[in-house]
Write a structure and sequence with these properties.
Elements: E1 5-9, E2 13-18, E3 23-29, E4 34-35, E5 56-57, E6 63-64, E7 68-71, E8 74-77, E9 86-87, E10 100-104, E11 108-115, E12 126-135, E13 138-147, E14 151-152, E15 156-157, E16 174-178, E17 180-186, E18 192-198, E19 210-211, H1 212-220, E20 237-242, E21 249-255, E22 260-266, E23 270-274, E24 292-296, E25 311-312, E26 318-326
Antiparallel strand pairs: 1-2, 2-3, 3-4, 5-15, 6-9, 7-8, 10-11, 11-12, 12-13, 13-26, 14-25, 16-19, 16-21, 17-18, 17-20, 20-23, 21-22, 22-26, 23-24
Length: 327
C-alpha cells in the first residue's frame, strides 16, 4: 500500500491530505501559524489501524446494530467490528483503503474509490468521491456517490480538531456551540434507541458556547444522569439533530487563547460530537487531545424507520457538503 500525501493551498490555508482513507493530515492556518488538527506523525503510520484520525469513514459512518439491515425483505449481514455491531463500515472500512487521486489542482483535490458489491457485506458497486477544496478562509469537504443497487451509505470526515498551538494541550480550554434542540438517545453500546431527547436542561445543551472541560468534569464527577458504556462515561460520543436553518449552520468551536474559531455548515441532518476519551496512538495521541465534529446521517438509520433515510437509489448521484469557516 503506497502512502501518498498531497497539498492544496491559498494565501490563508494549507491543507495536506493522504490517499489512505482520503484523510486530512494538516489544516494549517497561515496567519496564525497553527495546524488545527491532529495527525499520526510519520506517513508510514497511516498503514496501521488507528482511531480514524482525519479519515473518511464509510461505507457507513457510525454504528449499525447487530451488523445487519434489510432492503426489500432481503437481509444483508455486515462485517461486525465492535462486538455484535458494525462501526464506521466494518473491519476494512473506507479509512483503511487506498483512494485514487482523480484530480489535483492548487486549491482542490478529488479522491475516488470503487467499493465492490458485498464489500464488508454492503450491497452494490459503490463509486465514491471525496473532494477537499479551499476558498478564502473556508475548507469544503464534499462527498458524492452513486451505486448500481439499492444500498445504505453515510460518509463523514473524522478529523480531531485541536486549536491550541501546542498539540499536547487538551481540548479542555475549547468552547463549543451546537445548533440543536434534540439528540439521539443511545443504549450502553452507543446504538440509538430510536428516541429523540431534548437537550434543554441537560448536560447535552450546547445552544450557547460552553466550555468542553467543564462539561467533561461534570460527567466524570457523575453529577449527571448519562447512559454510556465505560469509556464513554468519561466524555461525549453523541449524535445531535441539527435544527434546520437557511444557512445550513451546525456548530462553532473556539479557543480564546489562540483566538481561533471554526464555524461548521452542512446539508447533513446530524453532527456527532466525540471528545476523544478513547483516543490512543503509540506515544503520540492521548485522550482529550482533540474533538471530533462529524457531520453525518444518523447512526443505525437503516434499522430506524423514523430517522432520515440513508437508502440510495441505483444510478442516482448523491452529494453532501461540509463547509468549515476558519476565523
Amino acid at each position: 500500500m503506497k502512502v501518498q500525501s498531497s497539498i492544496i493551498e491559498n494565501k490563508y490555508l494549507r491543507v495536506k491530505s493522504i490517499n489512505i482513507g482520503a484523510c486530512l493530515y494538516e489544516v494549517y492556518d497561515k496567519q496564525k501559524k497553527i495546524n488545527l488538527i491532529l495527525n499520526l506523525g510519520s506517513k508510514k503510520n497511516y498503514r496501521n489501524k488507528n482511531f480514524y484520525v482525519g479519515a473518511t469513514c464509510g461505507r457507513y459512518a457510525g454504528r449499525i446494530s447487530n451488523s445487519r439491515f434489510k432492503i426489500k425483505k432481503k437481509i444483508y449481514r455486515l462485517d461486525g467490528n465492535e462486538g455484535r455491531n458494525t462501526l464506521h463500515g466494518g473491519k476494512i472500512g473506507f479509512d483503511r483503503l487506498e483512494w485514487k487521486i482523480h484530480h489535483h489542482s492548487k486549491a482542490k483535490i478529488i479522491y475516488q474509490l470503487l467499493s465492490k458489491n458485498l464489500d464488508q457485506g454492503f450491497p452494490g458497486d459503490l463509486n465514491s468521491q471525496c473532494i477537499f477544496e479551499i476558498k478564502n478562509k473556508s475548507l469544503f469537504i464534499i462527498y458524492q456517490y452513486k451505486s448500481n443497487k439499492l444500498t445504505h451509505v453515510s460518509l463523514t470526515n473524522h478529523s480531531y480538531w485541536n486549536l491550541n498551538k501546542n498539540k499536547k494541550e487538551t481540548i479542555f480550554n475549547h468552547e463549543l456551540k451546537i445548533n440543536s434542540e434534540k439528540y439521539l438517545e443511545v443504549n450502553n453500546k452507543l446504538i440509538p434507541t430510536g428516541k429523540f431527547e431534548k437537550v434543554k436542561n441537560t448536560i447535552n445543551d450546547f445552544n450557547k458556547f460552553k466550555n468542553i472541560g467543564e462539561k467533561i468534569n461534570i460527567i466524570k464527577n457523575k453529577k449527571t444522569k448519562i447512559t454510556l458504556n465505560k469509556i464513554n462515561a468519561l466524555g461525549f460520543d453523541l449524535t445531535f439533530c441539527v435544527k434546520k436553518n437557511s444557512k445550513n449552520y451546525l456548530a462553532s468551536l473556539k479557543n480564546k487563547k489562540t483566538n481561533i474559531q471554526l464555524d461548521f455548515y452542512s446539508n447533513l441532518p446530524g453532527i456527532q460530537l466525540y471528545t476523544s476519551q478513547g483516543l490512543r496512538f503509540k506515544n503520540k495521541l492521548y485522550p482529550y487531545q482533540g474533538v471530533c465534529l462529524e457531520t453525518q446521517h444518523y447512526p443505525d438509520a437503516p434499522n430506524n424507520k423514523n430517522f432520515p433515510s440513508t437508502l440510495i437509489k441505483p444510478k442516482k448521484l448523491y452529494k453532501y457538503f461540509t463547509k468549515i469557516k476558519i476565523s
